[in-house]
Design goal:
By secondary structure, this protein is of the alpha/beta class. It has helices at 14-25, 55-63, 107-119, 145-149, 213-218, 221-231, 290-307, 317-346, 350-364, 368-378, and strands at 7-10, 30-33, 50-53, 73-76, 78-82, 88-92, 102-106, 124-127, 135-138, 154-170, 177-182, 188-194, 201-209, 239-241, 246-255, 259-261, 272-275, 281-282. It has one domain (7-40, 50-378): FAD/NAD(P)-binding domain (3-Layer(bba) Sandwich). The protein is globular, with a radius of gyration of 21 Å. The termini are far apart.
């Protein structure tokens, strides 16, 4: 007899796998659409991505046995932010009575841990193509084909920036500090600590003006490193590249609808869909909140589905609309803040430069406001 499923999840990234484990924990049968496994000899270090995850995301991943070991999840004890003049903001975990402001997590290690957890969950089955189910959840990322297939409009505001990501080995240890510089040309450079408390490697996320993205992506290593050394003001000494460069355009985006009924289905056999993660929304990476928002989507959707009235089918739009309202409300202030900061720090007018440096100095002295912002970004409860 053919296997039947309650939910089909399209997309087996971090959000998709986490959602699959959460739903299976509530005794739902899940089909997870995943590409074939990569050959064992493939070098996973070619993936240079790293995510900043807060306490809420860590607790969620630990609950599904998806949190990687300490070597691949480096606690951030301090956050140092410097503007293009003399403005600066400093966050310290000790001032928040916490062990960490966030954790910088190596993406290949996180995905491997979640894949292992999925393999040991009998209610989750990896499939290579979508299957019929009362509910399809789309976790395919910003370029989702299924979202377009379902006719969902995706409102995109492109930024005149591209992100360039790579890895560096530094002369000096990072000291568990995440560092960020707002540059005079409108770029934003971040060094994120890797490889544990004593490490001297960092993940680089550099938002560069669009017109210079190709130049820096293909610059020779010496030129690239020299510019990063100058932009980072020599904070970690001599730098050496340890990974290739990757690049992608930056944007703010949101789907107009996050749930609905699959077109062309008879009422007695209707199927519903929902979006989660980057398939539903994108924000600028300057505060490192993208994956935190996606994981919060997965947690909220699983909670709503598990809490639905027993007589409601998984394809019933009402619980899905509750999920959509909750997550849109949570995303709204974050999206506004990220967009405002991006606009403020990428404008090059001298008057704005003076204003943002003055504002950063005032924020550094703001006391309760600074504490509240830190707690929100940490996902503290």
């Amino acid at each position: 007899m053919a296997q039947t499923f309650d939910v089909c999840i399209r997309g087996a990234g971090v959000v998709g796998r986490t959602l699959a484990l959460l739903l299976a924990g509530g005794r739902l049968r899940v089909a997870l659409v995943a590409p074939p496994a990569r050959p064992a000899q493939e070098d996973v270090r070619e993936d240079v991505r790293a995510y900043a995850l807060n306490a809420a995301s860590r607790a969620l991943l630990e609950s599904v046995r998806g949190w990687p070991d300490a070597q691949h999840a480096t606690a951030v004890r301090q956050m140092q932010v410097q503007a293009d003049q003399d403005g600066a903001v400093h966050f310290d975990a000790a001032q928040q009575d916490s062990d960490a402001l966030a954790w910088i997590v190596d993406v290949p290690a996180l995905e491997a841990r979640l894949a292992e957890a999925v393999r040991y969950q009998p209610l989750v089955e990896a499939v290579e193509a979508p299957v019929a189910a009362p509910l399809t959840v789309v976790c395919e990322g910003r370029a989702s084909r299924t979202r377009a297939e379902f006719g969902v409009e995706f409102d995109v505001t492109p930024y005149a920036q591209h992100a360039i990501a790579t890895r560096l080995v530094c002369e000096q240890p990072h000291g568990q500090a995440a560092r960020q510089w707002f540059l005079a040309d409108g770029g934003i450079l971040a060094f994120l600590p890797l490889e544990g408390a004593q490490g001297n490697s960092v993940a680089v996320v550099w938002s560069v003006p669009q017109e210079r993205a190709t130049e820096w992506l293909h610059a020779d290593d010496d030129t690239f490193i020299h510019h990063l050394h100058e932009a980072s003001r020599g904070a970690l000494g001599t730098l050496r590249m340890s990974a290739p460069r990757a690049s992608w355009p930056l944007q703010q985006a949101q789907a107009r609808h996050w749930c609905g009924l699959v077109p062309g289905q008879a009422r007695q056999a209707r199927q519903a869909w929902a979006l989660a993660g980057d398939a539903a929304h994108n924000v600028h990476p300057l505060a490192g909140q993208g994956l935190n928002l996606g994981l919060a989507d997965a947690q909220a959707l699983a909670r709503v589905l598990h809490a639905r009235e027993p007589w409601r089918a998984l394809s019933d739009p009402r619980p899905l609309r509750r999920y959509e309202r909750e997550r849109k409300a949570a995303l709204l202030p974050m999206g506004l803040v990220m967009d405002s900061l991006q606009q403020l720090f990428t404008r090059r007018e001298s008057a704005l430069a003076a204003l943002r440096n003055w504002g950063m100095k005032g924020f550094e002295r703001s006391g309760p406001l600074k504490h509240w912002v830190a707690r929100q970004a940490m996902g503290a409860r």
